[in-house]
Design goal:
Elements (H helix, E strand, L loop, with lengths): L1 E7 L4 E7 L3 E5 L5 H10 L3 E6 L11 H8 L2 E5 L9 H4 L1 H4 L11 E3 L2 E5 L2 E7 L8 E5 L4 E5 L2 E2 L2 E2 L9 H10 L9 E4 L5 E2 H7 L6
Parallel strand pairs: 3-4, 4-5, 5-6, 10-13
Antiparallel strand pairs: 1-2, 2-3, 7-8, 8-9, 9-10, 11-12, 13-14
Length: about 210
């Protein structure tokens, strides 16, 4: 399994393209759809889904362009099902001159193990940064895409609508920190890290 990291959109959100030999999953395309398309074309990859860790504007800016270009489904947790088309809920009304609106998700995520094409993923609900935040765990390859829940020596902000610090602490300590120490964490912003390092060095939540 391979993972390509692209810093996209107005806040440099990490978009991830997880791929095998032919198929690919797109996570959190925050903008600049052309860069994603260029990578897919260059490596002769066929995207089969767009998966969102949550629906803040900086994670969804290229969703509709990519969805329409490749005719693929968008997955999002049910708690934020209405956020894609609502600039107030997704935050673009507050932080952007240009509002971000996309069509509703095609499929609603629930916590479970799921298979999309050749990819096996466990979806876990990790609220706190936002009510519908999820993390995507690839157990076979020992990595997790954590969105804005857990960063390198940091955590997601909780002062936005729907944010809750106590929920975020629970999500990190009882869900993500239960993974083996050698699991790599691919966050929504900034460099990758791993579970073992964060347990010891994260200044917000350590074990």
């Amino acid at each position: 399994m391979n993972i390509e990291t692209m810093s996209l959109g107005p806040l440099g959100t990490n978009c991830y393209v997880v791929h095998g030999t032919k198929e690919a999953l797109i996570f959190d395309p925050g903008g600049e759809a052309d860069k994603v398309k260029e990578f897919l074309t260059k490596h002769e990859l066929t995207p089969i889904a767009i998966l969102l860790t949550h629906a803040h504007f900086d994670h969804i800016g290229a969703v509709d362009e990519l969805r329409k270009a490749y005719q693929i489904d968008v997955y999002l947790h049910e708690a934020e099902a209405s956020w894609l088309e609502d600039p107030q809920k997704n935050g673009s009304l507050l932080f952007m001159q240009q509002q971000v609106q996309t069509e509703q998700p095609d499929r609603l995520l629930v916590p479970k193990k799921m298979t999309i094409g050749e990819f096996s993923i466990e979806v876990i609900h990790t609220p706190g940064h936002s009510p519908g935040s999820v993390s995507f765990i690839f157990h076979d390859d020992k990595f997790v895409i954590s969105g804005d829940v857990l960063f390198y020596q940091g955590i997601g902000r909780t002062d936005l609508p729907g944010g809750n610090y106590a929920q975020l602490e629970k999500s990190v300590t009882t869900s993500l920190y239960t993974l083996d120490d050698n699991y790599t964490v691919f966050p929504g912003h900034g460099p990758k890290t791993n579970i073992g390092f964060e347990k010891i060095n994260n200044p917000f939540f350590t074990l």
